[in-house]
Structures are given as structure tokens and as C-alpha cells.
Amino acid sequence: AIQMTQSPSSLSASVGDSVTITCRASQGIRNDLGWYQQKPGKAPKVLIYAASSLQSGVPSRFSGSGSGTDFTLTISSLQPEDFATYYCLQDYDYPRTFGQGTKVEIK
Amino acid sequence: EVQLVQSGGGLVQPGRSLRLSCAASGFTFGDYAMHWVRQAPGKGLEWVSGISWNSDTIGYADSVKGRFTISRDNAKNSVHLQMNSLRPEDMALYYCAKVGGLGSYYNTHFDHWGQGTLVTVSS
Questions:
Q1: Which of A19, A73, B97, B99 is the right S-S partner for B108, CB 3.0 to 4.6 Å?
Q2: pLDDT digit string, tens, across residues B68-106
Q3: Which residue among A32, A97, A99 places its CB closest to the CB of B47?
């Protein structure tokens, strides 16, 4: 199975900060990667798919980049509603595998 | 509006069975693959199983293979997860999820999720 290594596992940031989360695949996955946001007690929500495509309705402060094995999610100008846990998910092969998650907390 | 409404969770003893259901509306259900993802208490997300739009292609995580069975009924716009021989480590919040790509089982993200249903495995 493809392993997805996500970092950091948590970070503290202030409103207005720019934050970057990375995901590394154990083998090349082209651009078959998505980023999901999960708030406590809620289902995950897709932010980015195909590594860099913004899901409809998602604010443009979210962006994704990368291909092959290295991917990043960037949140420019963090907003109060962005404090949540973020996961990457590879959809290149089965079994689908998620990163371990990154909890973004308020500093 | 796409809606995925889940049912069927609950408390079950180890070794027993449970069937989860996910009722879909707001889109042409038969055109999309569907998946199940779970989240153990305080843990991350784990893909469990997926089924293509026509049930021709099915996949399972190694952790559930041979015990869980995914199925769908396109006439009733529903997907199910039959869980047998349940173990304490299967205790989790289970989500059904719809893929974003029309007709795609591969290389497509999950664009809508159910509300989750809790499965508790305990004696």
C-alpha cells in the first residue's frame, strides 16, 4: 500500500498567517491527491482535488501544489473558521490511503 | 442538493454483525462509485471499501477483507456495508462518501460525505 506521510502533525498559527502542510507519498502518484478539512464532530470536506484543483465553493485562500511524491496545501491568510484538522488522501491506487492529519490550532 | 443519509450503526458484541446503509439523493446515484471511510475515536481517517457505479469493481482495506461486504442498489439509491465478525478495533464512526468523477472508480476524490454513523463493538 502507498504510504502518505503528512507533516507537521500539528501547528499553531494566528489569524492572518500563511500556513503550509505537506504530504509525501511512498511512491509516485502523479497528481492523484486530495486535501480534506475536518472540523470536530463533522464529516470531512474536500478542499482540493487532483493536487491543485479548488473544489467548488472553497475559498481561494486554499491552494494545492505538487505532483509525483511531494504535495503541499497552503492556506494564505488563515481565518477563524480554518482551525481544523487537514488530511491528504491519495486516489492513485487501492487501498486508498490518508495522511495522518495535521491539526491547525489557534496561537 | 446532494444528500447522503446514513443509518444502521449501534452497539454490537464482538463477533456479531451489523449492516450500515447510506441513502443517496440529489444526484444520479447509478453514475457514481461510492465508498466507506471510518474514523476510530480520536484517530485519523481510514478507507474501508469502495464499489464502482455498476458493482463490477469492489475493493476492501486489508483490515476488513473477508469480513465486510459492500453492495449497492441503484434502483433504491443506496449503498450498504455488511460487517461480520466485528472486532473491538472496528469501533469507529463510519462515513459513506460519493466520488466526484462521473463513472470513475479510480483517480477521483470524495466530494460528498454522509453524516457518519457510530459503530461500537463491546461486550
A1: B99
A2: 999 999 999 999 999 999 999 999 999 999 999 888 888
A3: A97
For residue B119, the tally of other CB atoms under 10 A from its CB is: 20
Query: Which cell is B34 given?
Result: 461510492
Contact criterion met (CB < 8 Å) for A98 and B116: no
- pLDDT value of residue B35: 98
Q: Distance between CA atoms of B20 and B71, rounded to whole angstroms?
A: 10
Place of cell 500500500: A1
What pLDDT was estimated at residue A76?
94
- Cα separations (Å) of A25 from A100, B60, B95? 12, 20, 24
A103 in contact with chain B, both atoms CB, cutoff 8 A: no
Cα B53 to Cα B28: distance, rounded to the nearest angstrom:
10
DSSP codes, B3-69 = EEEEE--EEE-TT--EEEEEEEESS-GGGS-EEEEEE-TTS-EEEEEEE-TTSS-EEE-TTTTTTEE
Grid coordinates of A96: 486508498
Peptide bond into B14 cis (omega under 30): no
Residue recorded with cell 493536487:
A51
Residue B59's DSSP bridge partners are: B50
* Residues in contact with A40: Cβ distance below 8 Å, sequence separation at least 6, in sequence order: none
> B53 to chain A, minimum CA–CA distance in Å?
16
